[in-house]
Design a protein that fits this description.
Length: 645
Amino acid sequence: MAMNGLGEQLTFSILDTPRAVEALRDSGYMSTTHALAELIDNSIESGATSIEVFGVTQQDDTTQRFTLKELAVLDNGGGMDAETLRRSLRYGDGTRRERQGIGRFGVGLPNSSMSQARQVDVWSWQSGVTNALHTRLSIDDVNSGLNEIPEPKLKSIPEIYRDKSRMVFGDSGTLVVWNDLDRVEWKRVSTTFQHTEALLGRLYRRFLAKPSERLHPDDPRNDIGPQRTIQCIPIQQVGDTFEVDENNIVGVRPNDPLYLMSGTSCPEDFGPGPMFTELEGSPFVVPVKYNGQEYPVRVRAAYACAHVRDPSNPEATWPEAYTGWDSGSTPWGKHADQNMGVSLMRAHREVMLDESWVSGDDPRERWWTVEVDFSTDLDEVFGVTNNKQGTMTFQRLARFDWKREALPGEESFGDIRRRMEEEGDPRVSLIDLRRQIENARRLMRSRVREARQSRGARHVQSEDQKADAKVTAAVKHRIQEGYKGKSDLAGESATEKEQREKQVESLVVKHHIDEQDALRQIDETIKAGNLVRWIQSSQSSPAFFDVEALPKLLQVALNTDHPVYSHLYEIMHPDIEELTEDEVRERLAKAAAAFRILIYSWARYEDEQIGRDQRHVRNARVEWGKYAEEFFDEDDGSIAPTDLV
């Protein structure tokens, strides 16, 4: 037995219990709601169909203000026997070894509780609430030398929860109460519950939703169980009286980032049906190998319907109050703004919403979503954290670029992949998944960018419409002078029906534009009498735009995957109306710099040509300049080219 110089016994246990528990309190929960979610996880795993979250506030006699005193979670699940109840408060213990449910690491109850409070009391019963067993974990007890969870004993649950609960007490259930809330971020529980609904509704959307809407219709799984309810009930204590704040009870509704469910917390004033439409081919199943086995990972992708962003769409039913509004400023647009990212679903419960896949400065990112659904067997592959708030390996994939990863001598993606496999890089198992997500994201971004947004009746021609009309006039002038292009010659022999068919084929088949939107664009072009049309589409070509000579129409398709689009055109065409003066100045400066780089790229291309090729390129530049001068120099009130110098 080791002794120190004072004759005191020394111990060398692996953990110094008081200091360890205090250190574990800093367990990294993003919010009080995330910590409460650990308790709700336990409730769902125990078979609960009704879950209630209570917040008890006490009025100060001097200030008359209400201060949060207790938080509690009550359920009608299967309850726990004495041994299981005692083990539930031990760090690193647990009874769920088969990874079939949303629990996992055996630290949820003590970890989440101690991260918010200095004491947690637990009651559980399996033969009626009058036979409830009770035990607790307290920082003060641990500091006083307690090394074991107290043996559970019969003890009635607090009267306040028995009386104020909305559920019917059955044979079994559990009540968890947090006391001495020294780390809770909430101040006013009634208003906080309103914000809590969004997160809890998103985490548990499949458990809260109608059974018919939880999964894709073709998904064969049937392991979510009955529909659950979660209620947040604020209770106010004045003196010795406890009263439920009836006006602020929150029944948690599903919050679906895919916006394919009905009856969610998202306002639905935009029109009929769900807010998003599923990308063709979704869901995609990507096999992921781990420990010699393959596990399916399901990927769903959806993007906004046309009437959600365009009040002039025949299906739109926007309230008159939103006439002329940017869709992002509507209640449903603001709701989507809070759900941007890739949603990671583990065992039907969301682990995180990964925002690293979206561009934070582009408000249109809210109009698409990807959901990745994996089983608990792939926890190590995804890098699921012990508090179920992150997927560390998956998060690193959002910015993965094999060219940046390449070492000297590695010239292809295959070279990188082989090295990652040899080195045991955990990301390699998810590379194919990343590629599928990236493909879906690219397609949906293109659809969102291409969608034209009308913000109510406008009597003034847009600058884009003016540009098309101006160029059409210039083209007609050249035709009158005897200059004919392929589009003009093709139009001479094609009937009006053939012209429309060619345009539909180009827009729908080649550029993957929705057929209804394609027909609308064709009608707009014909109505305006234009001989040109500008579209945007995702293209694999290194060219930043494509030119297509259709009968009586010269169509230019800007490549949304080219840097010129993101660094120049997109900056000059922000899909938002609420820009500050400084933001406008910054965009103009970036656009000017991007235009300079674009011209430099041509200059360098011309500089590297030799002999006759250089003359051809130089002549092409001169001829293009002549066309540009003619197109710009229409008398419509715009600045003449010579005045731009």
